[in-house]
From TrEMBL:
Swiss-Prot/TrEMBL keywords: FAD, Flavoprotein, Oxidoreductase
Bilayer-spanning residue ranges: none
Cofactor: FAD
MF terms in GO: oxidoreductase activity
Protein's organism: Geodermatophilus arenarius
UniProt lineage: Bacteria, Bacillati, Actinomycetota, Actinomycetes, Geodermatophilales
This protein's name: Dihydrolipoyl dehydrogenase family protein
EC number: 1.-.-.-
Residue intervals of the FAD/NAD(P)-binding domain: 9-325
Ranges of residues in domain Pyridine nucleotide-disulphide oxidoreductase dimerisation: 359-465
Family: Belongs to the class-I pyridine nucleotide-disulfide oxidoreductase family.
Domain of life: Bacteria
Amino acid sequence: MSSADEKTYDVVVMGAGSTGENVADVVVRGGLSAVLVEEHLVGGECSYYACMPSKALLRGTEAIEEARAVKGAAAAVTGEQDVAATLERRDSFTSHWDDAGQVRWVEGAGIDLVRGTARLEGERTVVVTRPDGGETRLTARHAVAVCTGSEAAVPPVEGLPDVEPWTPREATSAKEPPRRLLVVGGGYVGCETSFAWNALGSQVTLLQQGDRLLPGAEPQAGDAVLASLRDRGVDVRLDAEVRAARREHDEVVLTTAEGEVRGDEVLVAVGRRARTTAIGVDSVGLEPGEYLDVDDTLQVRGLPWLYGVGDVNGRRQLTHMGKYQARQAGAAIVARARGEEVRVEDWSPHTATADHAATPSVVFTDPQVAGVGLTSAQAEERGLPHRVVEYPIGSVSGAALFADGYEGTAVAVVDTEREVLLGVTFVGPAVAELLHAATIAVVGEVPIARLWHAVPAYPTVSEIWLRLLETWRG
């Protein structure tokens, strides 16, 4: 290997998705050198197959329905959604799956980029197999950050791999709506995909193995989304375990306990697995295929030079949480490189403690589901003294103005000893925009007594905060 094929950097980042980009950006801003290694598209899942295309598919439907929910405006909605234009808009948000713009950003930020497949080869060493078949050996002075993310998990169902199921990648990048789409899994991806393609003309059947949708959210959320999907004609089947799959000519046939269900395509949305199978983690004593076990600075336990950031550690598999972890990990790497103290404590600039009890998330269905912190079930599991407060969002003036017949629910989980919020969930149209206020209250552990003085403007949907507090007071 020539000297041109051997390079040394302060930090080597495996994976140039949004998490890897943020790690590299933070350390370069901190005065270190960094290189990103990417085998596919710079920008990763969020830019091309997840957040951006999926929300672009959903937004047109959301805009139409918001207009139809207001008398006077509803009369202006006289046609149906332009499916081709919606798909074209989706494609524009992915830059038509061209990462040239992201590459320009990387170069402009002073970060090097190596294209190819990366694998660890012992301590602080990453070997990249380039597209031309050659190899580049990268050595890190301070840290290697593994930001290889996760991939869709396909359950061990007889015949399922043979029917070539869609993963979320295919579901968000399809060039036209399938006539009949089978969706296996009733979590975030399954519910959002069912809404999106149903609105664009597909006949959708959603199969959920459990007894409710969105099992990780408050029960009110799953109930509302279930009712809305069924109202739109989606065939939602709960307690529907898929036992076998096969193709008959152009049809996909799934076998459940209650019989067979047929479609043209099947999306499997039942979870994720770590992308650590083929990246050489065994060369440093780790188990391929497993999530990386990290501390709150995102350092892999027992390997002080190795960091596992984002989906690859399995802590919180959300784009914004991957970016958050990246900022914290980058700050810890810079501090350690400078010989500075790294503060491993709650809410320090070097730790990702929001992962534990203050993670925000949004399901972009109709109604939307926006939540942060602990659900009532999670508070119960942790043995925390708590009380659940619930109030109908449609009862506040701002919601009535936003949409005729507004229906929604707000649920707050309150620590009864400290009198602070443990978690908040909103279910209803456009509630995602309420979430950050709740996030601040949960992260800041703002006392209920102080929240009384955070006066919501009238008439806005944010009045729901006052109603929750009044309900708490009783």
